[in-house]
Specification:
The chain is mainly β. The protein contains 2 helices and 10 strands. Strand 8 and strand 9 form a beta hairpin. The structure holds manganese (II) ion.
Length: 153
């Protein structure tokens, strides 16, 4: 699943379920459907599964204060052993999201003790020659925009 999260910075939180937790990456520019884009994805702490259902406003003073939208959801399919891929720094997988689909790769950047990865769209029928995400401005859960979520608090 993906949260669109406007906190101190605007970013997207890309989350993959593995072994009962959500492996999470903060993507400042958001995912891109263009295979020539390589989007920085900073791995952050694992999140609990129930946070997947959160959409709303995290109050000032709390971690991640700001507006959170459920931007995409669906299933994912690792194409190799996921645990091993994460450990070795290269994970290829298929997304069956409402918005993100097809093959993707996460590549761990050196130095490996830092949490910087790249999220790359693989060339397939879902690839575009542009990032292609700007048109998706509403929640897949509630249909609300970021402003509407913010004002509803
Ligand atoms: Mn976030």
């Amino acid at each position: 699943m993906v949260h669109h999260h406007i906190a101190s910075r605007d970013h997207y939180d890309f989350r993959l379920e593995l072994n009962g937790v959500m492996i999470s990456f903060a993507i400042p520019k958001g995912p891109s459907l263009n295979p020539t884009d390589k989007r920085l994805a900073v791995q952050v702490e694992d999140h609990q599964l129930d946070f997947n259902n959160f959409e709303g406003v995290i109050p000032e003073g709390q971690y991640g204060a700001g507006t959170v939208m459920i931007w995409d959801e669906g299933t994912w399919e690792p194409l190799t052993n996921a645990q091993e891929g994460l450990a070795k720094g290269r994970l290829k997988f298929v997304l069956h999201g409402l918005r993100l689909k097809g093959e993707w790769t996460l590549v761990h950047l050196k130095p490996l003790d830092k949490n910087n990865w790249l999220l790359i769209k693989e060339k397939d029928v879902f690839a575009l020659d542009e990032a292609g995400i700007d048109k998706f401005i509403t929640s897949v859960k509630t249909g609300r925009t970021m402003d509407e979520i913010t004002l509803a608090k």
